[in-house]
Amino acid sequence: xxxxxxxxxNIGADAEVKSFSENARKATFSLATADGYxxxxxxxxxxxxxxxxxxxxxxxxxxxxxxxxxxTTIYVEGKSKCNSYNDANGQKKYFYFIKxxxxxxxxxxxxxxxxxxxxxxxxxxxxxxxxxGNDDLPF
Length: 139
What we know:
This protein is mainly beta. The chain contains one helix and seven strands, in the order E-E-E-E-H-E-E-E. It has a five-stranded mixed barrel with strand order 1-3-4-6-5. The longest helix has 6 residues. It starts with a strand and ends in an 18-residue tail after the last strand. 17% of the residues are buried.
């Protein structure tokens, strides 16, 4: 079985960081991705669509926290997850999110000068953290 998500989009609001202990913290934020379609009923006009994704990054670097601002364009690689809970009326509710394993800043908020595709959160459990030896990657 495979559970892999790759997204490129813009952060919708500054990341919120919660600390759970001296060694564990989590950054959460919304990520907007763009898509669209040709509307045949409207002279084949292109219609933009925005999808919003909830993303969590466990133990993010200080660099990522400082730069995870509204409008920042990022690359996210991770897994789709679902949690459930019972609301006040006892109804089961579901919450879908992306558990990020790799996050890269592609374009900082406001378009400032920063190296593109800087890896700010290496993959959990080994992975492609610094991209050493992966010169054929497009970013």
